[in-house]
# Entry
Amino acid sequence: MFFEAIAHFSLNEETEAQDLLNEFIEKYGDVYPYGVAIIYAWRGEKDPAFEWLERAYQQRIELLVFILGNPWLQSLHSDPRFPAFLEKMGLLEYWNVERLE
# Structure
């Protein structure tokens, strides 16, 4: 369902993509908020992406350790909230080093 939501959005099948996102949130939003954030980021919807990242942070979701190298979150990198979020996680210096390489 996760990849289907991304694929349908990428294919400009907005109704199917939205239906799958809604279903994903209903079934997995409580246990996989990081996944919801990824889908929103892929869609370019930054506000809900950051809201779901914050949920993941509050729940101490372990998958957040992959935030630095996650290409699905690329759309968030230019947003000033992204480095602020990394700073809160203690990862900002690693992101800055990664960007310089």
Observations:
- The chain has one domain: 2-100.
- The longest helix spans residues 14-28.
- The CA atoms of residues 86 and 92 lie 5 Å apart.
- The radius of gyration is 14 Å.
